[in-house]
Amino acid sequence: MTDVRTTAVESAIERELRLLQPEVRSSPELLAELLHPQFREFGASGRDWDRTSIIEALIAGEEPGPRPAVVSRMEGVQLAPDVVHLTFDTENNGSRAHRSSLWRRTDDGWQMYFHQGTPFSPEGE
Asked: CA 19: distance to chain centroid?
């Protein structure tokens, strides 16, 4: 993927990074602001999440995603006027995952519509 830093891509990146912050991940209001009502995730754990289940799990501290995580290789491309695709890697306590997110522009701003995490080992890159 070729990284093209449009304003839309920059907005999606900023919001993606916000989602990794502990204060956001512990706030149902902030999570609801960033996650699209039809949000879906295929987690690195293999679990299938919807918006309600991911918010509940994050608030309960079940930690289905990286927190805190080291983010690398963040790239983005604007696929349409209202759609941005981001890819990046995370490392959290030795666990690594390739990640992919789709962000949609809505009346409430950019919201994550879909996310997928796929575990990998450094040897398998």
From this structure: 7
Confidence of residue 66 (pLDDT cuts 50, 70, 90): very low
User: Coil, strand or helix: which one is 39?
Assistant: strand
Tell me the whole-structure pTM to 2 decimals. Answer: 0.86
Question: Which residue ranges make up each domain of the chain?
Answer: 7-124
- Please state, in angstroms and rounded to a whole number, the distance separating the CA atoms of residues 54 and 27: 12
What class is the 7-124 domain? alpha beta
pLDDT digits (tens, 9 = 90+) for 26-44: 999 999 999 999 999 998 8
Contacts of range 18-25, beta carbons closer than 8 Å, 24 or more positions apart: 19/112, 20/65, 20/66, 20/67, 20/68, 20/69, 20/71, 20/90, 22/67, 22/68, 25/58, 25/65, 25/67
